[in-house]
């Protein structure tokens, strides 16, 4: 199973870059998992502009990011929260990715985690990030792990100081990988249920 991990943030000392590296360490130890971690800086892209798309096409950084997403069986993203919402670089990347056909995010299993310097551990940014991902038909894992007061949460080796936090993160990622490894989606099972109900109500004559 191939897992693609990244933090959609550009700052070198980002807390979310620290968190996604820890997540990478964890999932790399899972059996049958090939974990691939990349810096978001590897995928440079301008602010989305329809005129730029018309004249110059899709930027190379967007194409490279799309390729990594397409090749992955599941994606883990550690995103910050900017002013109580989805960070601009993340939303910009999603907007560019939505211009591709097919959209690489469609049908992908995604797990969102995050870190922020406030009390709410980037949870509001997490909620907002789910909306465009759902619109593009990605399957976003319902559970979430967040680090509050991130400026105090990491040690000098960029590891989480609290072992209970790392245990919670490990449990979340383990459950996500187990969930994402299924070949069926929740909608497949729902469709089967409705078909069964329809046949029960109207049996073949």
From TrEMBL:
Residues 1-150 form the NADPH-dependent FMN reductase-like domain. InterPro entries: Flavoprotein-like_sf, FMN_Rdtase-like_dom, NAD(P)H-dep_reductase. It holds the Pfam family FMN_red. This is NAD(P)H-dependent oxidoreductase.
């Amino acid at each position: 199973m191939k897992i693609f991990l990244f933090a959609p943030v550009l700052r070198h000392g980002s807390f979310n870059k620290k968190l996604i590296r820890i997540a990478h360490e964890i999932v790399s130890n899972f059996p049958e998992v090939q974990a691939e971690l990349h810096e978001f800086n590897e995928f440079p892209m301008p602010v989305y502009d329809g005129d730029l798309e018309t004249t110059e096409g899709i930027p190379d950084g967007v194409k490279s990011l799309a390729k990594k997403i397409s090749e992955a069986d599941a994606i883990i993203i550690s995103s910050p929260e900017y002013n109580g919402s989805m960070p601009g670089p993340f939303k910009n990347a999603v907007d560019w990715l939505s211009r591709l056909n097919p959209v690489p995010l469609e049908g992908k299993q995604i797990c969102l985690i995050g870190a922020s310097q406030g009390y709410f551990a980037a949870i509001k940014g997490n909620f907002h990030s789910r909306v465009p991902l759902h619109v593009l038909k990605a399957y976003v894992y319902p559970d979430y792990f967040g680090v509050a007061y991130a400026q105090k949460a990491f040690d000098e080796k960029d590891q989480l100081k609290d072992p209970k936090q790392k245990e919670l993160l490990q449990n979340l990622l383990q459950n996500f990988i187990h969930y994402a490894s299924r070949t069926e989606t929740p909608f497949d099972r729902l469709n089967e249920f409705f078909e069964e109900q329809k046949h029960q109500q109207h049996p073949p004559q």
